[in-house]
Structure formats: structure tokens, C-alpha cells
Design goal:
Blueprint: E1 2-6, H1 10-22, E2 26-30, H2 41-46, E3 54-57, E4 62-65, H3 67-78, H4 87-114, H5 120-141, H6 153-158, H7 169-187, E5 194-198, E6 200-202, H8 207-217, E7 230-231, E8 233-235, H9 236-248, E9 253-257, E10 263-264, H10 265-275, H11 287-294, H12 299-302, H13 322-330
Parallel strand pairs: 1-2, 5-9, 6-8
Antiparallel strand pairs: 1-3, 3-4, 7-10
Bound molecules: glutathione.
Glutathione is lined by residues 9-12, 33, 38, 50-53, 66-68, 98.
Length: 331
Amino acid sequence: MIDLYSSPTPNGRKISIMLEELGVDFNPILINLDKKEQFSEEFSKISPANKIPVIVDNDNNQTVFESGAILLYLAKKYDKFLNKDKYWEIIQWVFFQMAYVGPMLGQAHQYLFYHPGKSKFAEDKTKGYAQHIYSILDKRLSKQEYFSDNYSIADISFEDHGVNIPSSFINQVVIKWESVVRDYENILPEVSFSILRVGLVLSNSGGLFKISKNLSKLFLLSPLGIGNQWQSWIHIDDVSIIFLRSIENDEKGIFNLVSPNPVTQEDLLKKIALFNNSKVIFPNIPTFLVKAIFGEMSELVLSSQKVRSNRLNDYVFKFSEIDEAIRDLSN
Ligand SMILES: N[C@@H](CCC(=O)N[C@@H](CS)C(=O)NCC(=O)O)C(=O)O
């Protein structure tokens, strides 16, 4: 089992993401940075610079600090997310993140957001670095989805920078709901608890699919907001099978119940219309109107959610492609 000493910060989250993606059990140990726990005598023994994240692999008593080194260690240990044929391509982007992107964006946030007006020189300089970084990333990622051919530790090392996850509505909901499960885990340690994070369920019994299908029949179906936001969907049959499977197998851990092939909202609606002999009406319903109607819950349909079906690698989806799922529900 791996102990992860961490905190919910960009560098800390990189490692939680990697461990979740690997689907391995790990033991998270919170180092509260506000309470300066990083400077405790005990933590100093495993973190010479008093920074999180750090892992201790209890299988071989190996300690590793520095997020890049930890990603590399885990990729090698589990032989995942580091394609040997693209080793150097992946490694150079990981180093670029560690040596340039992380530190420079960190400084930019300090001068531009947290302490504006303190030093014009520092603000101009770090803004220039930030613009340079984003132009490089735009160039690399405008034509391909990942830094290398496939999802790798390079993508994981960038995963969280610039995204303010804790303030999002969805994240707050997840934290609150799952903290209840954690409470039960403490009370009933002999019981295996699974946390199933369910994506957008496509079903004829209700929800977005049923509403969209009915609206499309009235020729009233329009994308919400920009329309290119990702929707991580799953067919109701797959949800039911996975629920039963996790009860029967006494599974433990966190599972993302989403199909392996997310689609943009516009594509999703177009397909719903297509299979119901209708069409999507443009222009899109503007973001401000959706927010005015649904309040903070509008984030569920307006924000981009491209979720990976972690830990379901051995599950063969009944409906993994959007066309098959919608065709099935449309008849
Ligand atoms: N280069 C290190 C940076 C680690 C780092 O800066 N960690 C921050 C949180 S994101 C930290 O522990 N800050 C506490 C402090 O500086 O006292 C890595 O990639 O792991």
C-alpha cells in the first residue's frame, strides 16, 4: 500500500489523480499547510524541502518526494502512462511542466492575483512568462488531444494547473456526499464501501435525454451555452449492471461511471435529434440565461466534464459508443 502525504493543491492533486487513474488503493494522509504541518519534525524526515507531495511505498519502503519524480516512480512501478516508444517525448513535457510551467504560473498567481500593485516589474515579467507558456500549450494541444500519442504522465502533470476545483458546485457536492460515506467507513470498518460517481445518465425514464428527446420532437432543441462543453454520459443499462456488479463483488474504492467515449453537448443533442427524426435549433441558449434559470446548478450542463472511466478497465460496456446508446433509447 502507498501512503500519500498531500494537500489539495495543484502539486498534491497530480499524485491523487495518478493513483486514481492507476486504480490502486492508497492511504491519503493530509498535511495541513495552513497549520504549517509541513514543518513538523516527522514530516521533515521524508520531505527535506518541507513540501507536499511525498509518497511512501510500503511494499519496498521507498520514499519519493517531488511530484515529477513521484509520477515517474508510479508509472514505472505499474507500467502505465509512460509508453516506452515515446519515453523521451513524454519525459520532456513532464520536465517542462515541473521546471517552467508550475513555478512560473505559481509566481504569476502570487504577483498578479494575490499581491497586485506590489511590483510592476514582477507583474510584467510573470505575465510575459504566463503568456509564453499558454502559447506553447495552445500550439501543442490545438492539433492533438494529449502531449504524446496517448494519455500519459505528461498530461497528468499538467492536469490541475489553472483549474480552481474546490470552488466548483460539482466539487462541493461530491465532497459533501462522499464525506458521509467516509463517516460510515469509520463507524463500520468491516464493510466495503464503493463510491460510484455517475455521469450523465441516458435513460427514457427522465433526465436530459428524455427532456431533449421530447423537445426535439417539438423542434425546440437548442444547445445550452457555448455547446462545445464535454458531456460524460452513460447508458442506464450500464449503470444498472455496474451497480449490481459492485454489490456482488463486494468492491471497494471510487469508480467513475461514464462511458469511455464522451461527446460534446452539441454532438449529443444533434444525435438525439437525428435518431428522433428532428433537428437541433440554433442559435444556442445563451449562458447568462441558463445561469439565471438554473442558478449554480447550471454548472452541470454548462461546464465541460470529460471524465475517464477509471477502474472499469475490465468492464465491457454494453453501450460504449454514443450512436448505439441513443439508437437503443430512441426506438
Ligand atoms: N517542485 C515541487 C513543488 C512542491 C510544492 O511547491 N508544494 C507546495 C504545495 S503545491 C507546498 O508544499 N507548499 C508548502 C510550503 O511551501 O510551505 C513538486 O513538484 O513536488
